[in-house]
Amino acid sequence: xxxxxxxxxxxxxxxxxxxxxxxxxxxxxxxxxxxxxxxxxxxxxxxxxxxxxxxxxxxxxxxxxxxxxxxxxxxxxxxxxxxxxxxxxxxxxxxxxxxxxxxxxxxxxxxxxxxxxxxxxxxxxxxxxxxxxxxxxxxxxxxxxxxxxxxxxxxxxxxxxxxxxxxxxxxxxxxxxxxxxxxxxxxxxxxxxxxxxxxxxxxxxxxxxxxxxxxxxx
Amino acid sequence: xxxxxxxxxxxxxxxxxxxxxxxxxxxxxxxxxxxxxxxxxxxxxxxxxxxxxxxxxxxxxxxxxxxxxxxxxxxxxxxxxxxxxxxxxxxxxxxxxxxxxxxxxxxxxxxxxxxxxxxxxxxxxxxxxxxxxxxxxxxxxxxxxxxxxxxxxxxxxxxxxxxxxxxxxxxxxxxxxxxxxxxxxxxxxxxxxxxxxxxxxxxxxxxxxxxxxxxxxx
Lengths: 218, 218
Hints:
Chains A, B: Residues 90-218 form the GST C-terminal domain. By secondary structure, chain A is of the alpha+beta class.
């Protein structure tokens, strides 16, 4: 079985690990599955060949024999179902870990994406400064709830799971904003995720792609 | 086995079916599982007893024997894994249906939620009118891609699945905006979902709760 994923030829973040292929690389590293990477340019992402794999013209995609998947959450879940290391063995624990995967992408990530949009895509708009506190407050509301639930535990529900992988990945997007600093247990939780050898390997692999472009004309 | 879900005592939409318990009711109706509903007030949703079930103080939750779940996507997936009717029998088709579930909540719904926020929570802000075209354009970009992929098919990937249940539910939030009207195949897709007997039963059940409050003081 050969696994092939797609990633940005040049990531918009320059290799900070925020592109979503890092989440899939991390999952594959946690379960010890080798994989190949096909790099795609922004132009190629919107071309028919890639759209056949990913209807929304994004990365990552996942190919394994005659199966093609898109959406990071679905890919990480697929990997967790096929290989040990990302989901608890008992059925109830597994369903709860999947609750946290969906919570990461559907409850915690949307206000964070809105903050990223406000900071980057709407930074030059006349309303940018006045609107920012509203957007930040929506993120803080979620962080406060997540912080209260995590308490002094290492992971969200027992041992490390795909739910933690997704949640840590989502929270990493907040680093530039400084919003995480007000919640020391969440900052420590993110650091715990980053310290995992599998994350380190995934981060290094995506960085190597992007370092290759440094100093070259865009 | 007794299944108990939670729903708003009084839904903010007054019974239009947009509260997320409708998605879970729909899934349970598709697989023919009876369920009980515990209604919660806005105050109760933020109290410790409910936060123990749902860390973000929302509805729906799902209880079944000693299992407690939150997050609509995870609950619908759990139902689909335990009962026939929501996920294809073959492993690859099942993984692809899950791709569409995540696409619904993580790629299509976030810009729609941003539009709802802009139309409701930021309607009285000085930037509201000038910013709205930007927000609408982000929704249209996703709708155009989804419309291109759906083409003239009835459902997103073969027969009706939990992926369609989630995608139709997400698109239903756009009805008030009129944005769906520009994509006749998506409008027909949503209508096809609403026409399913299981959806009709789910809609009627949530409406009955909210009709009970009509004319009573809030």
